[in-house]
Design goal:
The protein is an alpha/beta fold. The chain has 26 helices and 16 strands. The strands form four sheets. A six-stranded parallel β-sheet has the order 3-2-6-7-1-8, with helices on both faces. A six-stranded parallel β-sheet has the order 13-12-14-15-11-16. The protein is globular, with a radius of gyration of 27 Å.
């Protein structure tokens, strides 16, 4: 049986009152949590039924419960006391809170179903031309931000602010009338119930005598308010997290939640699990050099629990050379090493590209029945859809807003004075600016031409004459092959448009042509994003495309967002146990990510 370290033991044996455990990567936090639960049960005679552990995902809760039940001590509980400690997600706990009090039977809706609901609500409000899966998903994301108290993104949706609020009201009413809910609803309704009903709140506080929270850095402020309401007068709350691994800002998580806990519980006990038992010493040191440049963090010194760790960095002259070097390094692994390795990318788009690259070169990739990408869904498809709709069906402001600055023409939405876009009106707005007028004329010449062309020819005009293809290649410089593949398939797909068919009908038809599921593969190298890699570990990790503009993403400007991008890279690096391979390309004057520029590492040229 694994023996705890001195600091782990101190955390395990913490007595009454609040505790905050700052646990670095590979520091054995799950082991510590489980051992603490056993300590509370067998050494402090706490009923298992009054211990609740909350973690971030259903999979993580299931894994923690499995590890708990695999310990022979848990067998004594099931045979003797007849109950065990509870593990769950915050959403699962909220469902129990609502169901017990109100006989709650709301049905959780999938993302796809919520998108269809929003599309219907858009039609009801007269925004038929904006009814697309991509646009509906963007609106739902905005609604989630509002529900969680996150500031409005400021994005121009081409819909008046008042209409956005009406859509939010419509969505809420629709869900309530049909007994439907989303994850945000579970949190908010539980929060209100516990705030307003003191007796019911105290009932839950009495039931949960000891509350443990895993991955505390991933909790957003609304969830944190709910967690505090579950904590009784004894304040037996034990949180475990790492601000350096806070990477879900788009869901409202903030690294400062770890410091906020200290303000709310000034009598807390603070413990640092800073021994990394996962990664070799060189990898631990390298990762620390990366993340310590962030200003908004708790200062800590991570130590390696073992020697070794191999790091190789490669600067490749071209994208093709980068891919060839990556393939060579992966081929050098034996079968066992291959199955315990991963290629980790910044975005889903890159992950799809690299999965195709590996498959093309006969390298097995681990999959779980993932569906192939439908090119008529996603950002590029929505841009082309808006362009075609504008040219063919009415020059609507909302459509024009989507593509007018792709590539950037420095056009302002303030120049669009009416719902129907007018070339004359825009030229009048910029009449004192000859440079802007020179940008506007070719745009409208291309739009006028596309109006007379078939769908296929109009898409070709959009790509070439109006510069959309070059815009995408500039936006995704590390994904030229993937970008061209999507554009080519979209353009070719437009051959299937029938005479007189509306743009929306055509795109909806093509979206329903769902690609077949790929063959399920259980063995092979894992390909995944940096976000998806959180909580996992691999013998060897390959990190391609470490270029400025990819990591950090070129759209990221604010300091807090840049720091989250740096934490993302830190998470990716710390997945490696033995070997770490890093790659970037200098093609077209591209630069190494700023996060690695001032770190001493020899960059070899293959």
């Amino acid at each position: 049986m694994q023996q705890p370290s001195k600091i782990q033991l101190e955390a395990i044996m913490h007595g009454e009152g609040p505790a905050r455990v700052v646990a670095g990567p590979g520091s054995g936090k799950t082991f510590t949590i489980i051992q603490r639960i056993f300590y509370l049960i067998f050494n402090r005679q706490i009923s298992p039924d009054s211990i609740l552990t909350i973690t971030y995902t259903k999979a993580a809760a299931g894994e923690m419960q499995s590890r708990f039940l695999a310990d022979e001590r848990s067998q004594c509980l099931t045979k003797g006391l007849g109950n065990v400690a509870h593990f769950g997600t915050i959403h699962g706990i909220c469902y129990s809170i609502l169901k017990e009090r109100r006989g709650y039977h709301a049905s959780l809706t999938s993302e796809n179903k919520r998108i269809r609901i929003m599309e219907e609500l858009l039609k009801n409000r007269g925004f038929e031309r904006m009814c697309s899966a991509g646009f509906a998903a963007e609106l739902l994301s905005e609604i989630s931000r509002i529900k969680n108290g996150i500031s409005f993104s400021g994005k121009d949706f081409g819909i008046p602010q008042g209409s956005l609020q009406l859509l939010l009201n419509d969505y809420t009413a629709f869900m309530n009338e049909r007994g439907l809910c989303d994850f945000d609803d579970l949190i908010l309704q539980s929060l209100v119930l516990l705030q307003e009903n003191a007796a019911y709140r105290e009932k839950w506080q009495h039931r949960i005598r000891y509350l443990l929270v895993d991955e505390f850095q991933d909790v957003n402020l609304t969830q944190y308010e709910l967690i505090k309401l579950l904590v009784g007068k004894e304040k037996n709350i034990f949180v475990v997290g790492d601000d350096d691994q806070s990477i879900y800002g788009f869901r409202g998580s903030v690294p400062g939640i770890m410091k906020q806990f200290s303000q709310d519980y000034p009598e807390e006990k603070v413990l640092f699990l800073t021994d990394n038992y996962r990664s070799g010493e060189r990898i631990v040191h390298f990762a620390t050099e990366v993340v310590k440049k962030n200003k908004d963090r708790i200062r800590k010194e991570i130590h390696a629990g073992k020697a070794g760790g191999k790091i190789k960095g490669y600067c490749c002259e071209t994208r093709m050379l980068e891919e060839e070097k990556l393939l060579d390094d992966i081929r050098s692994l034996d079968k066992k090493e291959l199955y315990e390795s991963a290629v980790i990318l910044r975005t889903n788009r890159e992950a799809i590209l690299y999965e195709e690259l590996l498959t093309k070169h006969k390298i097995p990739v681990k999959r779980k029945g993932k569906k192939a990408q439908n090119v008529f869904e996603g950002e590029v498809a929505e841009d082309i859809r808006s362009f075609l709709r504008f040219c063919k069906e009415g020059e609507k402001r909302s459509d024009f807003l989507r593509f007018m600055n792709k590539p950037d023409r420095y056009l302002s939405s303030k120049a669009l004075l009416s719902e129907r876009v007018s070339r004359k009106e825009i030229l009048s707005y910029y009449r004192q600016n000859k440079e802007m007028c020179a940008r506007i004329e070719p745009l409208f010449a291309g739009l006028l031409l596309a109006e007379k062309l078939s769908f296929l020819q109009a898409v070709r005009c959009f790509r070439k004459q109006l510069g959309y293809e070059n815009y995408l290649l500039s936006k995704y410089p590390g994904d030229k092959a993937g970008t061209m593949k999507i554009l080519d398939e979209l353009q070719e797909g437009c051959r299937l448009a029938e005479r007189g068919e509306s743009v929306d009908d055509f795109f909806d038809k093509m979206r329903k042509k769902t690609p077949c599921e790929e063959e399920q593969t259980e063995e092979g190298i894992t390909v995944l994003t940096m976000h998806a890699a959180k909580g996992l570990e691999f013998q060897s990790v390959f990190l391609p495309d470490l270029n400025e503009g990819v990591i950090p993403d070129r759209k990221v400007k604010e300091e807090k967002e840049l720091e989250e991008e740096r934490r993302l890279l830190y998470v990716a690096i710390t997945r490696a146990r033995e070997q770490l391979f890093l790659y970037y390309t200098g093609e077209r004057n591209r630069k190494l990510t700023r996060f690695l520029c001032d770190i001493s590492l020899p960059w070899n040229r293959p």
